[in-house]
Amino acid sequence: MVDVLFLCTGNLCRSPSAAWFLCDQLAKSGTQDVRVASAGTLGSTLDIPEPLLRAGKAFGLDLSNHQPRKFDPDAVRGADLIVGMAREHVREAILADPPSFVRTYTLREIVRRGVERGPRGPQESLGQWLERLHAGRRHIDLIGDSPDDDIPDPMGGSPEDFASMLGEVGSKTRQLYGLIWR
After folding, report:
1. What is the pLDDT of residues 103-154, one digit of tens each?
2. Which residues of 65-102 are buried (b: 16+ CB within 10 A; e: fewer)?
3. Is the pLDDT assigned to residue 68 strictly greater than 90?
4. Which residues touch 103 (CB under 8 Å, ≥6 apart)?
5. Which of 18, 56, 137, 175 has the smallest number of CB atoms closer than 10 Å to its CB?
6. How wide is the angle at C-alpha 110 spanned by C-alphas 63 and 2, nearest 5°?
7. DSSP reduced 3-state for 106
């Protein structure tokens, strides 16, 4: 069993959307040995934003029953792959569990590195593939924000911001699926 944890700030938009997209892809392919969860570094008691619910309909996404939750260090320790929506989420995961650095990436970063270094091989474990992708990474590279690594948070934005986020998260999550489980 592989455990995947998606992280964002409030667990209202980006990470639950990524989890939904990956679960959808896994279900379509019949892949059953993967558990997918999402959480927020801050957590939230807010309802799922209405613009996200409306924009999600175009993708078949319905998060109306999603209950936001805050991540805890045990969730990070227990995950085989942690995918943050921005560098700040990766930093929080690594602070909670320093050895998780090798298996914690932003969604943009893991897809970029996976495309550059090649998909997981047929005889390659997820851990081996992540080790291969991790080569050359440095903690200092996680400082600050990055337009190359961070998916913008649509909270407080326009309906187009929510649709744009869903388009990117859906596309990157499908790419991630293809790189790991194809």
Report:
1. 999 999 999 999 999 999 999 999 999 999 999 999 999 999 999 999 999 9
2. ebebbebeeebbeebbbbbbbbbbbbbbbbebbeebbe
3. yes
4. 79, 80, 81, 82, 127, 130, 134
5. 137
6. 65
7. strand
